[in-house]
Amino acid sequence: MTTETMTAQELTDLRLGTLDTAVTDWEAMSKRLKTLSTGEGGGVNAKRLQTEANAADWNGVNATVTKNFVTKTAVEFQDVAGQATSILGILRDASAAFKKHKADLRTVIDDVAKRNIYINAKGGAVASVPSGAAAGDGDIPTPSDEELAVAERRVKRVLWEASETDRIAARALRALARNKHDFTGDGPGGLKEADDRQGKADADYWAKKVKESDPGEWSDKDVERFNETLINQRDNPGFSERFATTLGAEGTLQFWRDLAAPPGGAVEGERAKVLAQVQDNLSMTLATASHSDSPAMENWKRDVIAAGDKPFPIQNLPMGPNGFQVMSSLMGKGKFDDAFLNDYGTALVKHEREFPGDPKVAWRDTANLNYPPTDEPNDPFAGFMEGLGHNPEASLEFFNDSVKADGKDLDNWDYLVAKSDDAREWPVGEDGKPLGHDALGHALESATIGVPHDSDATPPKHSAGSAELVNRIVSEFGKNSDRLDESPMNDSFGNITAEYMRDVQDGMNGDREIKTYGSNANLGDLPRGQLKDFIAHVGKDPDAYGAIINSQQAVTTELVNEGYHDKAKYAEFSEEIANRITPGAEIAGIMAESRTQAVYDDKIAADAEFNESLATTDKWAGRAIDMGLSRFPVAGDAAGMIIEDIRGAVVEHYTRDSSEQAGQDRSDFLEEQRSKSADAMYDATYQAAIESGTDPENARSQADSAAREVRVGYGMGRQRAGS
């Protein structure tokens, strides 16, 4: 069972004239009925009739039958007027909302069209680039896969909101029209109130069903219906708070424990797929509820934390997962309240650090709380880290905080991230890797970048706190680079490196400052070699490699463009350009050596994976340019062309033929990458020189100089990565 979503064609073709006419008609109807009900404007009215009927001296049958009939009729007029007001409010709000949805969709369609993206009838995003003769002599960039995905998500968000408006309005109107022979005067005043009432009604229904039945025995149809309700109501405070507080903290935890892990072992097949959706949607529902500061919800949050060490068995058995394990399994999606996350995290850390005996024993229960199910222990820190991964503010605060346990104050950073005698021993999975490190990477990613780790939102300027955290990450893993060998955190560290590429290049550029996006991470202050060792080990991961290469190429190109833009400032312009190119060239050399070690030496990744990552991580090219766009000599569509040129250069110069027929030995590949890196910077420098007004002969000379500088810097980077 799925919730139908409006298509782009349906929303575009939606004609609101009839709805607007209905609003006008109901405005007139509501006004007339109000006059009949209350007497506004004078004349006979129901309120006056009711008052006179109650004041009259009735006798005999009239004292009962007639009087009751008159007063009831008067009340009905008031109810009719109230219902008309409710209908008017719903229609008026729906009309305004649909107009906004249509305008929002048009804005998205027009916006993405500038990047040669076409939105089809169903809301899908496809490239719209003319080919051959149709394109003429123009260099029309092809949108990347990431751009298409972002465009499609933007459209689907608008369509979801429009579908929600339609669903809420239709349900409210059906409820008002349900009784053909009676009226209600207490209908909702508009869509917002209708949404709140519907959410509370759904919460009451499902909370009652949870209490009166065994969720583990729900039919597949029941589970699908519950999931559909969550999809519709997960962002509705009326539903989320009512559902959570009606069940209570322990009731909420017991509910998921019973539904997710009934007797008989793991749930499989289609039901397991639906339960995976329920887990995500219930997580988002509780995240919504956590932002309420009502007394009932504050009690729920305190009680959830208090139940952290309580076992939640099934069918009154003595053993079962504890509250921390159950709650953490419901933190994978949605943005939970900052204070709740930090209070919960403090309690979780304190519980584990004060646990008598081996902490791993505390989490040994393997009830299937997570979907798809596994036989691995339920480490609650993994789910909690995912919660932090969706709340940058809470994540940054948590990693800068400390917890006192057994009389000892210890930084959360030292316990969960750093390598020390006091550090946590993360449980490992079947592949030998720490189970929660992928989630830990997500938490660090959100804390440093400033948006949820899986978000398309534009990150804010780097704060002093987030930049300092990046410094700690690079220092910790740069001096303990063996911890990065096949680490599940490497893709996140690659994203962090890409986001802070200006800081990275500044840290590799000696005393020559490179302006950063907000606060500087001051990576140049670290002991010699830590920054390069960090990049070299992270770059062995294909996704990290792609993010770093795309960002490096973009930032280096931008720095060259900035140099030409401010050319008059420099007495030795060629030297200035060389200074701007060297850090990026070193990074390219480090990345080439890292890729080679991963493919040829360690054999931990296939060459094709690195090729693919160059395309799937190309958003970092645009992101790096967006940070410094105001200093570019161009903007708008021209900037888009620059970004596309950079993406094209990355794919052209860093992709290699990985077929067996094109096999190369290690040294040949590295030399090829050196030449291609130089070619990429030659192209970028020549283009910048021409656009600044330099004649072609001098532009070629300056581009040749830039390419030579890349070859030198590339060699320096290779030596560092290979040492």
Outline of this structure?
With 723 residues, the chain is mostly helical. The chain contains 29 helices and four strands.
Topology:
Blueprint: H1 8-13, H2 17-38, H3 46-55, H4 65-113, E1 117-119, E2 125-127, H5 145-176, H6 191-212, H7 220-233, H8 237-247, H9 249-260, H10 269-290, H11 295-306, H12 323-328, H13 338-353, H14 359-362, H15 380-389, H16 392-399, E3 402-405, E4 408-411, H17 412-416, H18 437-449, H19 464-479, H20 490-499, H21 501-507, H22 530-538, H23 542-565, H24 573-601, H25 607-616, H26 619-627, H27 637-654, H28 666-691, H29 696-722
Antiparallel strand pairs: 1-2, 3-4
Helix pairs in contact: 2-4, 3-4, 4-5, 5-6, 6-8, 7-10, 8-10, 11-13, 13-16, 15-18, 16-18, 18-19, 18-20, 19-22, 20-23, 22-24, 22-29, 23-24, 23-25, 23-26, 23-27, 23-28, 24-28, 24-29, 27-28, 28-29
Protein name: AG2 protein
Region (Disordered): 657-676, 690-723
List the main descriptive attributes of the protein structure presented here.
AG2 protein, mainly alpha, two-stranded antiparallel ribbon, two-stranded antiparallel sheet, 2% strand, 3 domains, 723 residues
